[in-house]
Specification:
112 residues; alpha+beta; Alpha-Beta Plaits; 4-stranded antiparallel β-sheet; 6 strands; 20% helix
Amino acid sequence: MKKIEAIIRKSKYRVVKEALHAVGVNFFSYWDVTGLGNEKEGHVYRGISYSTSDIQRRYLSIVVNDDFAEATVKAIISSAGTGEVGDGKVFVSDVQECYRIRTGEKGGDTLK
């Protein structure tokens, strides 16, 4: 099993969610997060300077079987990208085991 974590623009969340549903990912968790980016300049709005180094993003956490990881990553990258700095990152790591709390069963079948 693989854990796929993605940090994306909040404005792209709906498109990414639809792309994930289209490839069969029907369950994942997400959080609104703030991070620091490479953008160093601020913006001025009505005479007040705002820092843009603190960036609002959405963090997705998805666990899939190994054979489904590549399709999931491709769906995220193709739907989240704008070609601009700050599109986000995708991280893939191994998951040792998964348990279904209700039944106690374990393994990849618990993801279905």
